[in-house]
Structures are given as structure tokens and as C-alpha cells.
Amino acid sequence: MILNIVLHTPLRVWFILAGLVVLGVLQTRTREVSLMRVTVLPAVLLVLSLVGMVHTFGVMPLAMGAWLAGVTAALLLPRSMVTTRGAAWSDSAGRLHVPGSWLPLALIAGSFAIKYVAGAGLAMNPSLASDAMFAGCCSLGFGSFSGLFLARSMALRSLATTRSIERPASMADRLPQA
């Protein structure tokens, strides 16, 4: 049965997966990124997650609540669980130094897996779209993964914000004393 599902998956889905894997693998390299880049992808993923959930399950209260619970739970995680170790803000470059991490690839793969399972389930049994348990579980997954991307983004952005707050004090120390 699983082989049958895989064989009947539209070709475009495998191209999307390949692109997502490439995007995730690129995240394993150390790089310098702007605050905009750190912010845009998680924001887009959050919106796509919500739109996908509503498109799939409609405005089902349980699905909406589960999605929101997933996002909220991810945002409530301690920053140490979502921050890339070794990430630092560079005042001179105005960019974040982000060491490579496998976490984005894991989050991408998890998001894809939930979307794939939901799509396959709905293709085999369209009535699942109105099943509260199925909708709730899928929506919780959609919200959790997109929430983790957002939490990671917020943790990285806080490095720049923290440095900006500290900057005036360090400048004051450099002024000549009268």
C-alpha cells in the first residue's frame, strides 16, 4: 500500500521535496545572513502553514485551535532549544553569523512529512477533511513546525537586538572624560 501511494504521488511533489532538501542542506553551512533573510522565510512558512490548514480543513475550530496551540508551544520553548549555537551579530557587517545546523533540514523534512501524509490520507479518503481528530493532528503538526521556524528566527533576531541595546553604553565608555 505504501509503495502504491509513493508511485501515485505527482511528480511535482518529488521536485518540491528535492528543492526543500537542497534548501535544508544549504543551512548546514556557516554563513552570514541579514535580519531580513532570517525573518522572511519563517514568516512565509507561517502564513503558508495557516493558509494550507484552512484550505485543507476549512475554518474548523479544532483545527484552528490545534494550529495555534502548535505555534504557541513552539514559541514558548526556551531560546536555548531553538537558537543556533555560535550564532553572533556583527555590528560592522550588520549581519548575523550563523554556523551551519541540521535543525532547519529536520524542520523542513518534518513539515513536508506532515503535508505529505495529510495529502495522501485525503487522496485516499476525502472524508478525512471533516474528521476532527485528523484535522487536529495535522494542524498541530503544521503549527508546531512553522512555530519552531519562527521561534528560531526570533532567537536569532534577538542577538542583533541585544547588541543594539548594549551599543549606547559601550559608546559612552569611549567618550573622553572631562
Give me some keywords for this one.
3 strands, single chain, mainly alpha, 178 residues, globular, three-stranded antiparallel beta sheet, disordered C terminus
3D structure, described in words:
With 178 residues, the protein is mainly alpha-helical. It has one domain. It is built from seven helices and three strands. It has helices at residues 2-7, 11-26, 35-57, 61-75, 79-82, 103-124, 132-174; strands at 31-33, 88-90, 95-98. The protein has a three-stranded antiparallel β-sheet. Strand 2 and strand 3 (95-98) form a beta hairpin. Helix 2 (11-26) runs antiparallel to helix 6 (103-124) and helix 4 packs parallel to helix 7 (132-174). The termini are far apart.
Topology:
Elements: H1 2-7, H2 11-26, E1 31-33, H3 35-57, H4 61-75, H5 79-82, E2 88-90, E3 95-98, H6 103-124, H7 132-174
Antiparallel strand pairs: 1-3, 2-3
Unreliable stretches, pLDDT < 50, 5 or more residues? 164-178
Main β-sheet: number of strands, strand sense, barrel status? Answer: 3 strands, antiparallel
Strand order of the largest sheet: 1-3-2
Secondary structure class reads mainly alpha
Using DSSP, what is the number of strands? 3
How far the N terminus sits from the C terminus, by CA atoms, comes to: 81 Å
Please give the count of helices: 7
| Binned strand content | 5-15%
Cα shape: globular
Instruction: Output the helix-strand order.
Output: HHEHHHEEHH
**What does the average pLDDT come to?**
87
Radius of gyration: 20 Å
The helical percent reads over 70%
Number of domains: 1
